[in-house]
Amino acid sequence: MSEETKQAVFGRDALSRLEGIAEVDPALVVTDFAAAGRQTQQRLSDAEVLLTGWGCPPVDAAALRRMPRLKAVVHAAGTVKHHITEACWQRGIEVTTAAAANALPVAEYTLAAILFANKRVLDGAQAYRSTRRQVSLLSLFPDVGNYRRTVGLVGASRIGRRVAELLKPFDLRVLMYDPYLGEDEARALGVELSELDPLAIRSDIVSLHAPEIPATRGLFDAARLSLMPDGATLINTARGSLVDTEALTKELRTGRLHAVLDHTEPEVLPADSPLYELPNVLLTPHLAGSIGGELHRLADAAIDEIQLYAAGLPFRHRVDPATLAHSA
């Protein structure tokens, strides 16, 4: 991982706990397997487990030749697609990830966004700020509120499933689209299975939780955005590529839709993008995921996995290579 990642994710208590479980040098951070010095190369040749994080270089065939004893990679973050290669699977390396831990703050952000969007909190705040007197809520927002509204979740990912769980206490109808989700699983989640277009048509809120894969690029294009009812809100905490940014911008400029966007394409919008200024858009800089103190949950999750490994037990959050083609 990068040194910055180590400093942000692994506090003193986490490193102390790790030292009690494994033979490890907490000061050793590898950012380039090929350029590592002789002493580090020796450490790599002895390594049985790699503890990785953001900034990890690809663990490819050349890297694996430097680690003949390597048996497992424990990733203290979400997706492993950036550094786990086919060579790892071919050699039978076990891989685990803290994606489940990282899903929690994203789901919490999404829950807050859903409840605030249905309540029209941003619109109400803007009206209050501009008039600076009593706001006639019933005349301005006659249909707001969360009672019996419909939320459409796109993707039964870890985050999508967690959002469905968090929505259970509320008087909301929850639809879910995922081509790999069955009726029994949907019932267990408390959601109604739906095809994508009907979900867009029926939902007051559409929240995206699908992975970034070729099949999901432009999932919400001009045609699908046009299906969403007037006043509906699109929430994107997944990836910017799932939405046609130009088409969404056109819709938002008319005021017909609202949006809560934690991811966009490009990831940082041009300085002259109208999305920064539109009153019906809440634009945040990729803060839904783990930040600040939440990063320590990733460290704890990764160390929990190492503790299981040290005890000869299976990983709790093992990555299945067969599912990577259609998951994050």
Can you put this structure into words, describing what you see?
Helix content is 39%, strand content 12%. The chain has helices at 3-9, 12-21, 38-46, 61-65, 86-90, 99-118, 121-131, 137-140, 158-167, 183-189, 196-202, 222-227, 245-254, 295-310, and strands at residues 49-52, 72-75, 94-97, 149-154, 172-177, 192-193, 205-208, 233-236, 258-261, 281-283. By secondary structure, the chain is of the alpha/beta class. It is elongated. Helix 2 (12-21) packs parallel to helix 14 (295-310). The strands form 2 sheets. A 7-stranded parallel sheet has the order 6-5-4-7-8-9-10, with helices on both faces. It has a 3-stranded parallel sheet with strand order 1-2-3, covered by helices on one side. The two termini are 19 Å apart. The protein contains 14 helices and 10 strands. The mean pLDDT is 95.
Compose a concise summary of this entry:
The chain is of the alpha/beta class and about 325 residues long. The protein has helices spanning about 5-10, 10-20, 40-45, 60-65, 85-90, 100-120, 120-130, 135-140, 160-165, 185-190, 195-200, 220-225, 245-255, 295-310; strands spanning about 50, 70-75, 95, 150-155, 170-175, 190-195, 205-210, 235, 260, 280-285. It is elongated, with a radius of gyration of 22 Å.
List the helices and strands and how they pair.
Layout: H1 3-9, H2 12-21, H3 38-46, E1 49-52, H4 61-65, E2 72-75, H5 86-90, E3 94-97, H6 99-118, H7 121-131, H8 137-140, E4 149-154, H9 158-167, E5 172-177, H10 183-189, E6 192-193, H11 196-202, E7 205-208, H12 222-227, E8 233-236, H13 245-254, E9 258-261, E10 281-283, H14 295-310
Helix pairs in contact: 2-14, 6-9
